[in-house]
Specification:
By secondary structure, the chain is of the alpha/beta class. Helix content is about 50%, strand content about 15%. It has an eight-stranded mixed β-sheet with strand order 14-13-12-11-10-9-22-23, covered by helices on one side. The protein has a seven-stranded mixed β-sheet with strand order 15-16-17-18-19-20-21. α6 packs across α15, α9 packs antiparallel against α10 and α14 packs across α15.
């Protein structure tokens, strides 16, 4: 073996040579830079052009330097024109003006605790073509069965985009959790001109036409087919993973995916494009299409899939990169991943120069850059390590690729010059080494991509969300085997949906694939839930300063360089150890591998196993947002749940985290969405002994649907009427209110007749009064208690001091979330302070856990 004594050129010289040798890369990158700089002051564009010229002049390419500077300025000019076009509608939105207008529904309505919201595009009038965020309050309803593309006649009040939106604390969908969140800037990045606070909405019966109408119909068919044969929770996840339609995913589930580092699976991105191409290529080859035909078909599929899946920034980037790669493959030209990435940046910024300010856009590009910089070399290193450990046999070289003879050898003969058999045990045994090596390479490359993307996005996650999901790496590795099956099955179902108008018989096939699709989707969902609750799964790592982001990336690059140099130094030793490992007897290797696998499995089970039920009396005031859900667990295993919050709270997930296996009793205190809304999911997810129906004969459709769910699950239903006492294992439940009422319709206000109960065990008493305030409580025989839930989320209640004087609680919990009602009210908080009660709030403390043991109470909070 010989080595060259000539030293390699310095890294800077290599970069300069690459830039000069890739003028198209420089040109497209210059345009993208100019488009991004268009969002800042004009001086920034000039500085960017001068910087580009200086760098290329330093590379001794003056002509290319002049071109790059011109393209930076040209891109900035183009970006300014595009911004003017986007902002033209925003300037026409008159803040506070009441308007009557027609608009097409552009996105599915997204429910929230305060109503729902959706994007609409105005048709006609001075706001013609403007995109508005329509907000429908909870007391208003959109027309039944409204669909994307339907025309609505709307009456409401306009609200412009102003700085007052920053941290207002009002309903801002799932995107406005932090106090510093600039909602106005978020809407501007999406090209939305303003908000419309709706007072009245009705359907006109018309739909938008042309290509958007065709896409609407195709999207509906695909969505219906993807959900066919799946339970609601898995159907929502499948639509999110395959089509980007995540509005039906419960917020609790969405939070699990964020905390576990699996949120990218719910954002349609480059992974979807890659899997679509991987699924379609063999089918097109079987159909007999040549290379150019396959390329044209793949480009058509990508062009169809991007708008079907919502055409978000990450998908736009992925679509451009995928199209560039397909074109390069079709034309038999080497595909440049960097050129495709720059082209994608330029294309997305040309559509909206503000796109780069969006965290999703930044994370998407950072992940791709990380994969190109770290994932490719890591993948090679991991693959070599895997092949070195596996080998092609005992001490032999790795097996050749599947179906290919080894170089310099002949294929073994079978008979007189006949080819080797391709079926049967002998052939299978002959191919096992190649299959094993291919599997190892696939896992190694998947692990490398996951590690690279995780590291590359960590500084941005710390900057935007003040935390880094450490659990993301193992979670993504564990999800790796299920992602492709889930996506492919969902895509096949979507394709069957698109074929349904021509071949109606395929509908049954899409539904038949539902149970098969549920397996990987449910597995991924369960992984998200488990890793989200893993101790230390999220590390708080705030990086508030923008200047800190490039510093973090510089430190990351230096660390990667140090690891690379250390790997080169230790490489010979690693090869020697791998060789020694391969030469060990096969039984010894198998035994060692089995012991390691068992150890890893036991560790994973220990870390990820669902919590066991508590061994002490425990009360949990669950954080379900603006709503009520209280869980009481006894050491004997019995558990009672009072309400379950709104449907988007995902209370079933919180119960699993609390170690609930089954529920002895569930109490629906009254008909109110923020109390009974989540009970249907609970009844479906757990075995329930008895349901105490506090609906008081309500006709509320949501409450009636919950009772129907209980009947389907064969749950015993008992109508509540005080006085009433029941035993639930070691827990005693005494119902103090409501008393029976005369026949007739339920009262319009259900709060005063909500279930009021005292839950007791030993010497501990807990008062739970739902939304029944002092007017309903004071006439009752109220006992002294150790703890209580403050009525009605802490609303203003003049009689609360008298209630506290009679109850004399030591501890009180207020179950409340972000709201526009002023809960909890200052007078209520003042009354609790004067009474000397320790107060906990779920909006600040998260889930509050009260443990009772040895006559004392111990409280832990989630945050």
């Amino acid at each position: 073996m010989s080595f060259s004594s000539r030293a390699p050129p310095p890294a800077g010289g290599q970069i300069a040579a690459l830039m000069v040798a890739r003028p198209w890369h420089v040109a497209v990158g210059s345009v993208a830079l100019g488009l991004a700089l268009a969002t800042g002051p004009k001086l920034g564009s000039l500085v960017g052009a001068v910087a580009a010229m200086a760098v290329l002049c330093g590379c001794r390419a003056p002509a290319l330097a002049a071109l790059a500077a011109a393209l930076v300025l040209g891109g900035a000019a183009l970006g300014e024109l595009r911004l003017q076009a986007i902002d033209r509608s925003a300037r026409l939105v008159e803040d506070g003006r009441t308007v009557h207008l027609s608009a097409h529904l552009a996105t599915p309505p997204r429910p929230s605790a305060f109503g729902s919201s959706a994007e609409v595009r105005v048709t006609g009038g001075r706001l013609d073509g403007a995109r508005l965020l329509m907000r429908v309050p909870r007391w208003e309803r959109l027309p039944a069965r409204v669909r994307v593309g339907d025309e609505l006649r709307l009456r409401g009040r306009l609200r412009g985009l102003g700085e007052r939106d920053r941290g207002s604390g009002t309903d801002r969908d799932a995107t406005a959790g932090a106090d510093s969140f600039d909602f106005a800037a978020y809407l501007r990045r999406r090209g939305i001109a303003g908000e419309l606070l709706v007072d009245e909405a009705r359907a006109t019966g018309r739909r938008r036409g042309g290509v958007p109408h065709v896409l609407d119909l195709m999207r509906e068919r695909a969505q219906h087919a993807v959900a066919a044969g799946l339970p609601p929770a898995e159907a929502a996840l499948a639509r999110g993973m395959v089509l980007g339609q995540d509005e039906a995913i419960a917020e609790g589930v969405r939070e699990d995916f964020r905390a576990s580092g699996l949120a990218h699976l719910l954002a349609v991105s480059g992974q979807n494009i890659m899997l679509l191409v991987a699924l379609a290529l063999p089918l097109l080859a079987v159909a007999g299409l040549g290379p150019r035909g396959r390329g044209v078909a793949l480009l058509g599929l990508v062009a169809l899939y991007v708008p079907l899946a919502g055409a978000g920034p990450s998908l736009q980037r992925a679509g451009v990169m995928g199209a560039a790669g397909i074109a390069a493959m079709t034309l038999s030209r080497p595909a440049s991943r960097w050129y495709a990435l720059l082209l994608a940046a330029a294309a997305t910024l040309a559509l909206n120069p503000r796109a780069w300010e969006d965290p999703g856009w930044q994370l998407s590009f950072a992940a791709v850059v990380g994969i190109l910089c770290l994932g490719v070399p890591l993948g090679r290193a991991f693959s070599r390590a895997a092949e070195g450990l596996i080998g092609g046999g005992d001490g032999q070289a790795p097996a050749p690729a599947f179906g290919a003879p080894a170089s310099g050898s002949r294929a073994p003969a079978s008979g007189a010059g006949s080819p080797a058999p391709v079926f049967g045990p002998p052939a299978l045994r002959a191919r096992l080494p190649a299959l094993r090596a291919a599997l190892a390479r696939g896992l190694a490359e998947g692990a490398a991509i996951t590690i690279a993307a995780t590291l590359a996005t960590a500084p941005l996650l710390a900057h935007h969300f003040d935390a880094v999901p450490v659990a993301g790496l193992p979670a993504n590795l564990a999800a790796l085997p299920a992602v492709a099956p889930a996506m492919w099955l969902g895509m096949v179902k979507a394709g069957l949906g698109l074929l349904a108008p021509v071949l109606p018989q395929v509908d049954w096939l899409a539904a038949a694939l539902g149970p098969l699709t549920r397996l990987p989707v449910a597995y991924i969902s369960r992984l998200a839930e488990l890793f989200a609750q893993m101790p230390g799964g999220q590390v708080s790592l705030p990086l508030p300063s923008r200047a800190g982001v490039p510093i973090a990336y510089a430190l990351l690059a230096l660390t990667a360089l140090g690891v690379h140099r250390a790997a080169r130094t230790l490489g010979p030793h690693a090869h020697e150890l791998a060789a020694r490992w391969r030469h060990r007897p096969k039984p010894q290797r198998l035994a060692t591998a089995a012991v390691l696998a068992a150890a890893v499995t036991l560790l994973a089970v220990r870390v990820l196993a669902a919590p066991a039920p508590p061994d002490t009396l425990t009360v949990r005031f669950l954080d379900v947002g603006q709503g009520d859900a209280t869980l009481v667990q006894h050491p004997d295993g019995s558990a009672v749940l009072f309400d379950a919050g709104p449907p988007e709270a995902g209370s079933a997930r919180l119960l699993r985290r609390a170690g609930v296996r089954q529920l002895t009793a569930v109490v629906a205190t009254h008909a109110s969405r923020d109390h009974h809304g989540g009970l249907a999911e609970v009844l479906e997810s757990f075995r329930v002994g008895v349901l105490l129906d506090g609906g008081d004969g309500t006709a509320d459709p949501g409450f009636r649907a919950m009772l129907a769910q209980a009947a389907r699950e064969d749950v015993q239903i008992v109508h509540v009427a005080a006085p009433m006492t029941m035993q639930a294992g070691g827990l005693t439940i005494r119902i103090l209110s409501p008393p029976p009422r005369p026949p007739g319709p339920a009262p319009e206000d259900p709060n005063p007749r909500a279930v009021v109960a005292v839950v007791s065990s030993g010497g501990f008493d807990l008062l739970l009064s739902a939304d029944a305030e002092s007017e309903a409580l004071l006439p009752l025989q109220l006992p002294e208690v150790e703890a209580m839930k403050v009525p009605h989320h802490g609303s203003s209640d003049p009689g609360l001091p008298q209630v506290l004087e009679r109850l004399r609680p030591q501890l009180a919990a207020i179950e409340v979330g972000v709201n526009t009602y002023g809960h909890p009210s200052p007078p209520t908080l003042a009354a609790l302070r004067r009474a000397g009660v320790r107060v906990y709030r779920t909006d600040r403390d998260g889930t509050v856990t009260l443990s009772v043991e040895g006559g004392g109470m111990h409280v832990t909070t989630e945050r």
